[in-house]
Amino acid sequence: GQRTLTTRNAIDLWKLFYSKDEAKPAILEPWLAYLEEDMIVDIPKLITCDTWKIFPQFAAFLQSNGFDSYDENDGWPSLFDGFVE
User: Fold this and answer.
1) Which end of the chain, N or C, is surrounded by fewer C-beta atoms within 10 Å?
2) What is the number of other CB atoms lying within 10 angstroms of the CB of residue 68?
3) Phi, psi (degrees; rounded to nearest 5) at 4
4) pLDDT 10s per residue in the chain (85 long)?
């Protein structure tokens, strides 16, 4: 029932989740590096439940369509906007 995770916990959980049988998205390492960099230069963000749940769709979208097809007006969580920039 938790609605948010700290960035550090989310990074660790993504690493754990994708270390198993789950297919690892091509953007996983850059995504995690982006979050880790953000923790260094800015106040760490909380990862919302929506961001956590939508990440697989986001990764699949970028893998299929590329970064140029991403439109920040499509309703993705704002954290994804910063990553794509």
Assistant:
1) N
2) 8
3) -145, 160
4) 678 999 999 999 999 999 876 788 999 999 999 999 877 777 667 899 899 999 999 999 999 999 999 998 898 988 899 899 8
